[in-house]
Amino acid sequence: MDSSARAEWESLSHEAIPELFYEAALAFAARQEAAQRLETALEVYARLVREAEAFPGIQSRAQAR
Q: pTM (2 decimals)?
């Protein structure tokens, strides 16, 4: 993960509301994917699939990627 992506991820990690964190993480992963940073995108999508059970819409969108 490059320094700007790392800084963005660090900023996201401070989100206290889980649904907002997961939505932001999904958007972050999509940006990483678009930038061809596929390993980072895959790690984030996999985390969302594992951890976002309470938010099935987010979980299914991550799984579809």
A: 0.89
